[in-house]
Amino acid sequence: MLLSEVSKTIDIKKILNQKPNKHFNKINSSSKEVDKKTIFIIDSKKKIKREYIDEAIKRKIPAIITNKIYHQLSLFQIVVKDIEKETQKLLTSLKPFKPINTVAITGTNGKTSVAWYISEICRLNNIKIKMQGTLGYYVNGKKTKHGSLTTPTYETLHQNGFSKNKNKYNFVFEASSHALHQDRIKKYPINIAAITNITHDHLDYHKSILNYKNSKFKLFKRYLDKNGVAIINSRMSYVKTLVKILKKRKIKIIMYGIKDIFIEFSNKKYFLNIYNKKFNLNKLQLSHFHKQNLECAIACCLQLNVSPKLIVKSLKKMQIPPGRSETIDLKKISSKIIIDYAHTPDALQNILIANTFRNNKPSLVFGCGGNRDKGKRKVMGKIAFELARKVIVTDDNPRNEKPQIIRSEILKYCPKALEIPNRKEAIAKAIKNLEKNSILIIAGKGHEKIQILKHKTIPFDDVKIVKQILQKY
Could you tell me which of 23, 22, 20, 63 has the C-alpha nearest to residue 41? Predict the structure, then answer.
């Protein structure tokens, strides 16, 4: 669309600094997601920092749309009265066709894995699927864009999920508690909503587990379409509260874990139960938390009209999500290294238990992030102390906190741990100490490719580091 055509689509109050006509194909309120073909949205009510405006300008945006005149800017400015209303009109004009189905996944742990499994099952059955989340933006299993947030801006959600012509895709995305609390999803049409669990996380932001829970439940209370389907983990905390909310709204409920859809282990085999029909999963190996994530994904795929037989056939062929129990086998010593994103107490506990065999506990390298939920450090220290054989406490993403303080708060509750601040050195030491028939878990960063130290971001990839170290052996 040409900038000159915007006036035909929205109600404009004033135009300033009109420049030679240019094409644009996107609009966005995030300075990190704009380029030379993106109109940058500036809502004066949100008091956007000048540094973000400057960042957007550096990315050569052609214009801004705003509800306030910025006299100090020489940019082409489209001034409107109601910015939310007018940007929605623009989005609808650029991409008017909604997805066939939209699946939103929330929960403390497992969102990424569930979204990935849904995408994989669809991909393997030639069902067109788009996925948005922590790992980025994927189309039919291929990554097309990186992502800076678990749930991006509403404009990104719309432009990635909707299409210019008739939409042939399903769309699955992760709905974080922050996005739900901040109303980042707005009126995005969701007809399938799923929840994995609710455990300790993000209490630095939400202040209490009750606030955190209420933010998660907004997906079902406010955003899920009245004719939609709710997919719930029967094992999770507050399940009765959520069921009560859904029954009040007369929403269809599918429970996984019991009754409707669940995976059971019997006679040394796994079986998938779908509404009293049993399917043999043959030699599929599953840990407790992988099983729950798969159950959720299967329940979602059934709502996307994928047949049970096709789902079962797909399970053997699926690729694992990057940074989620990514395993490197060391055949010479019959051991393995597992790189996982486990950055919450529940996730750390799950992966340690899943990799404990006959009381042979795994070794562990981990840390905690700075400027985030400080209460996790004590809990994760205790979990490491109880469930890991050897522990090295190192730096995760210290951000603007003093790394030694973060480590000391963990070590207080994990006194047997070795402290090695440099993450690369910590990983190298753990690999050097790896014994025969043992497991080493490197937790906390998983798919991440950077480490955040104060205002700097340095390249850091746990998987890459492990492979580099192993080349020396």
Answer: 63
